[in-house]
Amino acid sequence: MAQACIFCDIIGGKIKTDFLYEDGDVVAFADIRPIAPDHVLVVPRAHHATLTDAAGDGGPALLGKLLKVAGDLGAARGPEGGYRVVINNGAAAGQTVYHLHVHVISGRHFAWPPG
Ligand code: AMP
Ligand code: ZN
Fold this sequence. Notes:
The protein has 115 residues and is of the alpha+beta class. Helix content is 28%, strand content 19%. It has helices at 6-11, 51-57, 59-77; strands at residues 21-22, 26-30, 38-44, 84-86, 102-106. Helix 2 crosses helix 3. Residues 6, 15, 31-33, 41, 88, 94-97 line the site of adenosine monophosphate.
């Protein structure tokens, strides 16, 4: 981690947060400002600022793990197994926290195309 990172602080225990899931590679916790009735973030323990960075440095195993955990959480938490998975990559896409994370949102209708 080159500079202060709120998700590294959460993963490191500096900011107390309940993990909904954790293993050696990833953690999952509730989004502090949920945009849906259920909103979970799946986050790699290793710091990669963006998906682009992780695709370059993290390799397919890490990316596969993130999606696997997102899929399991979404299926378990989404009504009738329905959920949406989102990764915002870069400012133009609305990324605000520069530590890769997968949003898993469910519990309401999601329009397509997204805004
Ligand atoms: P993004 O805009 O894709 O970078 O998403 C960042 C997300 O992190 C937002 O949905 C925030 O609400 C969420 N967030 C920021 N700080 C925290 C925190 N301390 N605990 C949980 N979620 C957070
Ligand atoms: Zn970080």
